[in-house]
Amino acid sequence: MSQGETRALAEGQPLMTVNGRPGRVGALLGAGGQGEVYHVTVEGLPFALKWYHRHYIDLDIGLRTRLERTIRRGAPTPDFLWPLDLVEIHGSGSFGYVMPLRSDDFRGMRDLIAAPPQRLNLTLADRASVCLQLANSFLELHAGGFCYQDINFGNIFLHPENARILICDNDNVNIDGADASIYGARKFMAPEVVRREMLPNSRTDLFSMAVLFFYTLLGWHPLDGKREHAAALLDPDTEHRLYGAEPLFIFDPHNGANGPVRNFHEPIVARWNSLNGELRALFIRSFGEGLHDPHARVLETEWRAPLQAVIDAAFGCADCQYEHVADWRAGKMLAPMACLACGKAITAPEGLRVGRRVIGLSRGKSVPGDALGLRAGAAALVEAHPARPEITGLRNLSDTPWQATLPGGESHTVEAGQAVRILPGLGINFGKLTGAVLAAKLEQNA
User: Domains along the chain?
Assistant: First the structure.
């Protein structure tokens, strides 16, 4: 806080939760339109306390009832920084709630699209992992009969090293279909909410989630094409037209009136063309039929397989490292024949098919145990031969021996710590599951 500003609660001030847990107020962590957030201790353990401004309590008359219900319900997944208990301080005229404390190494998700040097640079696989975690978390929330109402960049934090997410501001959560306390964030609201024809609900959450996914993977808003580029000023009337009255997807396959602008949107076009077909089809549905029919929107479960395919099969150009996604269909790899960034010929890795998943075997790729029917954690690593760098192998990082069958039919055991050469036609029995190495035969991905 700048000099001269005041805080509602004093450092060292005692507190008591509604359920009788004693604590003490610590440092002020931040402040906003709704209230202030403090570091507190409750029964000697660290937490965060969100303390509301008095005027906000008067505006949001259903806030306390909503929070009490949220606390009773409990967090849908550990990814939610969920309200744990209410806090009252005698004579303050306000109240707040305690929640788990977010560590300082988490970054705001908005940093994914921030200007350098603030921009958070994650791999394409990590970005897909962020989306997959969000889909799973919001599925659990919605399955419990609740909606979030305000999905946007500002409410989500992520760890730059492992891409783990945390969802905050859960005082927005309400029973699906109940009167909403908030419309949502600019550019994340569903068109019917922008037009004030509908209050936020689980179906508008699905739209906001799709916008968030598009931003995360492509760094751009899905409805910002020619029309937004031509707008001299994004005033309220223009925003209402672009995102409410006349929304149109930048990659709408049937209407190019809001398509990409030459010499401006090339990075967005390249990333779009680098994605797998199933994922692009979901975005086309989200921002095609889904713009006008809430029931046509993509469900959380539908995002899982296409996002997992990005995690499994993203690979970098050998010359410039720009990432593409191998789109394996009927044993064939579909991908651009030339790098979408530098134009050099693509050299794609082989793929390891295990069940319905195909994992790209790029050097440095860590294969998770769950993909191989083994226990959690890294189970295999793709690496160069230490003496013959032209050879690529798959090292067994698990504690289970594998049985490898070479293309010629010869079979041998790959003990823990050993590696086997990656060759098309190689078969590996991992114990519960078996895998087969597929050749990287590129065909143009239209």
Answer: 14-99 (3.30.200.20), 107-307 (1.10.510.10), 347-443 (2.60.200.20)
The answer to whether the beta carbons of residues 174 and 146 sit under 8 Å apart is yes
Buried b (16+ CB within 10 A) or exposed e, 352-383: bebeebbbbbbeebebebebbbbeeeebbbbb
Handedness of CA 44, 46, 52, 57 (dihedral sign): negative
State the CB neighbour count (10 A cutoff) for residue 233: 6
C-alpha to C-alpha distance for 297 and 383, rounded to whole angstroms: 41
**pLDDT per residue as tens digits for the range 271-280:** 999 999 999 9
Q: Please state, in angstroms and as integers, the Cα–Cα distance from residue 37 to each residue in 80, 87, 276, 322, 410, following that order.
A: 16, 13, 41, 40, 64
Report angle CA 358, 363, 366 to the nearest 5 degrees: 60
CA distance 349 to 326: 9
Residues 6 or more apart from 196 whose CB is under 8 A from it? 183
Asked if pLDDT for residue 2 goes beyond 50, the answer is no
Give which of 160, 122, 283, 309 is closest to 210, Cα–Cα.
283
Q: What pLDDT was estimated at residue 167? A: 97
Start-end of H helices in 36-154? 54-59, 63-73, 124-143
**pTM of the prediction?**
0.94
Give the confidence band of 160 by pLDDT, cuts at 50, 70, 90.
Answer: very high
Fill in the amino acid letter for 161: E
Judge whether 360 and 349 are in contact, CB under 8 Å. yes
Q: Please enumerate in sequence order all residues whose Cβ is within 8 A of that of 11, keeping only pairs 6 or more positions apart, or say none.
A: 25, 26, 27, 28
